[in-house]
Amino acid sequence: MQVPYSVLSQGRREAFERFGTVFDLPIVRSPYGYLKRSYQGGLVLDVGAGADRYLQQVLGLDDEAYHSLDSDPAGQFTYTDVSQIPSDQQYQWMVLNQLLEHLTIEETADLLFGLHGHLAPGGCMAITVPNVSHPIRYRNETHVTPWSYGGLYAICRFAGYEVQQIYRYSKNRGPLDPLSWVMERVMRHLYRIDWCQSIMLVATR
User: Does domain 5-204 fall into CATH 3.40.50.150?
Assistant: First the structure.
């Protein structure tokens, strides 16, 4: 699906008006910790699950509560394409962890539109992507689209989702000693770089 530039541009402006700069986004320790605290039961769809299906282990879900979608031939998944999901199947949670950076803008739009009707009313979708404001986080030969938090907001709104919150997080802790703390803020001001490695967006239908 072709995504007009005006949609992305307007969405980025709206994201800035709602959430400020990337440095204003609240920090969470990890997306898995957030999901463990937030999950209150119901079906979960892990999109881009990976062969080890780590989310299932983190949430302690049996195969009835956990469904996976991935095309990796190295793993076994409930679905290998969004078109295989039954038309009446809905999920309380959908998780797209470090997936969309591997897709084009058009592929991302197709995926989000395809998933929209399968997110239950009141259900939540959590999306994580590398933080393009981090100096090296995006360096991976399999990455295709460098999603800014504003662009991610825009594509979700275009696909019909209501964005509730956007966070940033990192596997590594931020600077703690005073000198590093000052240097981090100087570098942020001069080069607009961030120590947080990833962005997480939470949306509802």
Answer: yes
